[in-house]
Amino acid sequence: MIVTVRNDWTLAEVKALFALPFMDLVFTAQTVHRRFQEPNTVQISTLLSIKTGACPEDCAYCPQSVRFDTGLESQALLEVEEVAARALAAKQSGATRFCMGAAYRSPKPKDLRKVLAMIRAVKSLGMETCATLGMVTAEQALDLKQAGLDYYNHNLDTSPRYYEQIISTRTYQDRLDTLQAVRDAGMNVCCGGIVGMGEEPEDRAELLHILATLPVHPDSVPINQLVRVAGTPLENAQALDPFDFVRTIGVARILMPRCHVRLSAGRSEMSDELQALCFLAGANSIFYGEKLLTTGNPDTEHDQTLFRRLQIVAEGAPAHQGVAVAATGHASHAESNAATA
Q1: 259 catalytic per annotation
Q2: Is 190 a catalytic residue?
Q3: Which CATH number goes with the domain that contains 194?
Q4: Fewest C-beta in 10 Å: which of 8, 117, 198, 217?
């Protein structure tokens, strides 16, 4: 298969990739990966929740929704000084990018002004910035860009058809409009989805088709595996076949060869062997640290051990020197199903 960077994939072509024999798909994905990406390398990412819980939306996977009793303790928007201190601590441990996630439908003007101050404070440290704040208008996107925001995350979650079964408080077009506002403002886009929510295989194909036919491919594509949280409508969702998860990673890599494919939420429930398969299929980014907004993440020591076993190095680290402990943050809307975008 000869693969180039395309934005004109047909849905039939995407479904055909999903239908490939598993070994053929993984081989093709790894071949594409080596053509466009650095092999045996992973981007290490981290995230700070700057506002937790009390979200008015009804995303069925999300423990931060005010509509569901999940035992989550809400946290008001942090003060700028605290965020700056956390960013400085991250930089001192080697981080180059700092991401801020907030549980909003869309940020209110007063809160946005404080977030803009956070962005400026982090930028003053010489760090890259990213954020996930829910829906934003064209004007808000420009304000974020002018404050120094480098990356904005906003996921599509699933296909338009299945979306109606998961969320009723905002439309699919609302999400697409936010992505357009972010692109128009000149920021990098991070956009992916969640699998394992009870969707059909064609829903996963349609989600990736939409992402791969955006005017510009996202800079990174987080592929989240549903974290079933007690108290949410999806707490009893049937577990996804692990091979279907790997297939989704592999097809994303083939369709969007230059992007970072992020192995995102659900990693704490994955075996080392499954994660290795995901890397083989083209995943080259993970979240690093003990928490993804509201739920657990594999501990850093375990991650470092796994990367040493696989002889994977952190992006930007010298070859054969192991995994850097430093983390660069780049948010995913559905980390741990904590819907903030």
Answers
A1: no
A2: yes
A3: 3.20.20.70
A4: 8
